[in-house]
Design goal:
By secondary structure, the protein is an all-alpha fold. It is built from three helices and no strands.
Length: 74
């Protein structure tokens, strides 16, 4: 597991990270992504996570819109 540096992480964040990693409902993908991100430069990791979030949100929005458009046409 990535080492959390006390100087850069607040105790609340550290507790949240540990809880997320320990939660059996957390997907392996999210665990791996979090551990990988914590080993990276935090600014780069955040920028990449925000870009991923934006793309995933746009993809979901498009899928939902198509679903409702298909239903409206039938």
């Amino acid at each position: 597991m990535a080492e959390l540096e006390p100087a850069t992480d607040t105790p609340d964040v550290t507790i949240e990270v540990i809880a997320l990693l320990a939660n059996p409902a957390t997907s392996y993908w999210l665990r791996d992504a979090l551990v990988s991100a914590l080993d990276r430069d935090p600014f780069d990791a955040e920028r990449d996570a925000l870009a991923l979030s934006t793309i995933l949100t746009r993809n979901l929005d498009a899928l939902v819109a198509r679903h409702f458009l298909d239903r409206a046409e039938t």
